Amino acid sequence: MRAVVVREFGPVDAVSLGELPKPVPKHNEVLVEVRATAANYVDLLVIAGTYQFLPERPFAPGKLPAGVVSANGAAVTRFKPGDRVLTMAEHGGYGEFVAVPETHCYRLPRSLSFVDAAAMSLVYDTSWFALRDRARLRAGETVLVLGASGGVGLASIQLAKVMGARVLGGVATADKHDMVLDAGADAIIDLSRADLRDSLRSQVHAETQGRGADVILDALGGDVFDAAIRALAWRGRLVVIGFAAGRIPTIRANYVLLKNIEVSGLQVSDYRKRMPDQMAACFAELFAMHEQGKLKRLPTTVYPIDAFATALREIQSRRVRGRIVLTQGGEL
Question: How far apart are CA 243 and CA 218, in angstroms?
C-alpha cells in the first residue's frame, strides 16, 4: 500500500512516500481504509525517534486516523464493512490502510465528516481527560489554558466553556488573539509581556479578583510553567500536558504544600491502553456535544497526503492556525 514511510529516525526531510505491506487484520481487528488523519506535533517526535512510544521500523506515522471499515477479523462483532469510524491507532494514519482492535474504534455520527473527526482526535480527548479526570473541573471555576492557540488549547477552551467554566486564553502572539477569542475564551492572558514571572500572575489576578486560576492546563512548560504555577488559586490544579516551549520545568515540593495545590500529568495514550472504557465514554460525550451543536469546527487546513512534509513543517515552525488534516481521497 502507498504510505509515508519512516525507515530511519531523523528529520522530516528523511521521510518519503513509498510502499508498505497492506495490514492483515487479526481475529479481533478491523481493517480501516484511511480517509483523513490529523498532522500533530507528536508526529515530529515519533519521526525523530524522541517520543516515548516508538514502533518498529519501517512504519507509517500518524495517530488516530478516520476512515471506512474495509474488512473484519473473524471475531469482530461490532462493525461491518462500510462503517465510518474514528480509530485509536497509535501510528499508521499516513498509510492507505490501518488494522486496529475493534475496541479501539468508534462509530462516527453521520453529521461528523472524516476531516472534522480527524481534527477532533487527539486534541479533544486530551482536553477532555485533562478537564474531567485530572483537573476535576467544576462549573463556575476559572480555567487558564496555556498555548491556547494550538489544537489542544482551542479544544480545551471550547470544552471548558461547555462544562460551565470561565476561560482565560494564554497566548504569546497578538495575531492569534482573534482565534482564541472566537473559540470562546473570556479574556486573553498575554504571554509575551516583560517579566513573565510577575506579569502572568498579575494578569490572572486582575481577571479573578485576586483569587488566581482554579485550573491551569499547560502544554508549554519552560518559563511559562514557572510563571503560571504562581497564578494558581488556593487548592488549584495544574495539569502538565506537554513541553512545547522546550525546557522541562521543575517544582519545589514545599510550594505545592504551602498553597494546597496539585500538579498532575496527562499522557492520553495511557488511557487508550489502560482504560479503553473511559476513552469510549470520552468520545461518546464528545460526539454527543457535536451532535447538539455545542462544539464549533476547529480552524482546519486540509492537505493531500502527498503534502505531508509541508504540513509537518507548518507545525514545526508554529505557523499553523488551528489544525492540519491530511486526506487520502474518497468521501471526506
Answer: 8
Instruction: Please state the domain count of the chain.
Output: 2
Domain co-membership, 296 together with 214: no
What is the CB neighbour count within 10 angstroms for residue 191?
A: 23
Angstrom CA distances, 167 to 161, 163, 273, stand at: 7, 11, 31
Beta strand 232-240 pairing with 262-265 = parallel
CATH number of the domain enclosing 40: 3.90.180.10
Distances (CA, A) of 299 to 1, 210, 303, 305: 30, 33, 14, 19
Residue 42 shares a structural domain with residue 60: yes
Domain extent at residue 222: 139-266
Q: State whether 260 and 147 are in the same domain.
A: yes
Residue 125 DSSP label: H
Residues 55-98: pLDDT tens digits?
999 999 999 999 999 999 999 999 999 999 999 999 999 999 99
262 φ/ψ sector (left φ>0, alpha ψ -120 to 50, else beta) = beta
Asked if 273 and 250 count as a contact pair (C-beta separation under 8 A), the reply is no
Alpha carbons 73 and 25: distance in angstroms, whole number: 5
- Whole-angstrom distance, CA of residue 303 vs CA of residue 265: 32
